[in-house]
Amino acid sequence: MNIFSIATLVIFVFLSSHPVMGDQIGDNPQYVPPTATHKLLVFHLEADDSFSHSSIAKGITMFEHMGDANGFEVVVSEDPALFNDDTLEQFHAVVFLNTSGDFFDESQKLAFQNFIRSGKGWLGTHCADNTLNGWSWYHEMIGSIFRGDSWDNNIPLIKVAQDHPSTKDLPDPWVISEQYRKNTWLFDENTAADKGFTVLYKVDPEFYEGKIGDKPRDWANQSFVPYVYTREFEGGRIWYGSMGHADATFDIDGNWYKLMEWGLDYAFGKFIENE
Question: Is domain 31-268 in CATH 3.30.457.10, yes or no?
Answer without folding.
Answer: no
